[in-house]
Design brief:
This protein is an alpha/beta fold. 36% of the residues lie in helices and 26% in strands. The protein has a single domain, classed as Vaccinia Virus protein VP39 (Rossmann fold, 3-Layer(aba) Sandwich). It holds the Pfam family Methyltransf_25.
């Protein structure tokens, strides 16, 4: 699938993608620099999109780790599965609020998200926050890309430690929220 087809999907479904373009390599690298992949066995990506973050995760994760990529766009899911689907990379065409149904009760080391929480209905957003905090190991991290600093405050009810970073090397510039218990 070519980039123009992916860009078309991005704009056709802007309410679910929540972005005007895909994450830059610089943003992906900065986001992933806050994650400790060494020894992480179960990794979850929320909002696989075009696979730019997925590629970065795969490049960094241990060979015996498993990555679960949640994406609601069937178009993006087909593309992700074609590019990355394998024994240890599971592409799941379902909402992140259903992640517990796919993880068999296993605790998660890392959750990496680019979900457009500002556009997700409150009930679904709350379910994703709750499940993420419950499913994360005590030593685990939830790392979110967003475009508003105010999103940081939504995580406060679910995570006790929250840090933020910022990068201008993306369009638009982005915040990275790093959460853990």
């Amino acid at each position: 699938m070519n980039k123009s087809s992916l860009f078309k999907e991005l704009f056709v479904n802007i309410k679910t993608t929540g972005a005007v373009t895909f994450s830059s390599k610089s943003l992906v690298n900065k986001m992933l620099s806050f994650a400790d992949f060494k020894g992480a066995k179960i990794i979850v990506e929320l909002g696989g999109g075009d696979g730019s973050i997925t590629r970065g995760i795969i490049d960094r994760m241990d060979r015996d780790a498993t990555l679960f990529v949640f994406e609601i766009s069937e178009h993006f899911c087909r593309n992700l599965d074609r590019q990355y689907g394998s024994k240890n990379v599971k592409i799941i065409c379902d909402s992140a609020e259903n992640m517990d149904r796919h993880l068999n009760g296993d605790k998660v080391d890392l959750i990496l998200s680019s979900l457009p929480f500002s556009l997700i209905p409150k009930e679904s957003r709350t379910a994703i926050y709750e499940k993420s905090s419950v499913m994360l190991k005590p030593s685990g991290f939830f790392i979110q890309i967003c475009y508003s600093y105010l999103l940081r405050f939504q995580f406060a009810s679910y995570f006790s430690n929250i840090k933020t970073a910022f990068t201008l090397k993306n369009f638009p510039p982005a915040f990275i929220i790093i959460c853990n218990s």
